[in-house]
Write a structure and sequence with these properties.
Elements lengths: L2 H20 L34 E5 L2 E5 L21
Antiparallel strand pairs: 1-2
Protein name: WAP domain-containing protein
Keywords: Antibiotic, Antimicrobial, Disulfide bond, Protease inhibitor, Secreted, Signal
Subcellular location: Secreted
Length: about 90
């Protein structure tokens, strides 16, 4: 039957949907960097906003990249109840 093809299609689409969500940006902007000198740069703590907890964003800081509280949150995204339908094809 079609069952093996359905599994193949779902296996192909699943990584794309997860990767796409991780590249999106959270609401707000990174705070301005403080004017300071660094004696040593830190290893980056994140690569995208989705690696940061809650509303924090992955931002450049004085001595590296880390999760920081955003500023200028104008257009917050309201989470709606329920689940999106599964689309085939």
């Amino acid at each position: 039957g079609l069952f093996p093809f359905v599994l193949l299609a779902l296996g192909t689409l699943a990584p794309w949907s997860v990767e796409g969500a991780g590249n999106a940006l959270k609401a707000g902007a990174c705070p301005p960097r403080k004017p300071a000198q660094c004696l040593r740069y830190e290893k980056p703590k994140c690569k995208s906003d989705w690696q940061c907890l809650e509303k924090k964003k992955c931002c450049p800081d004085t001595c590296g990249i880390k999760c920081l509280d955003p500023v200028n949150i104008l257009n917050t995204v309201e989470e709606k109840p329920g689940k999106c339908p599964v689309v085939y094809g």
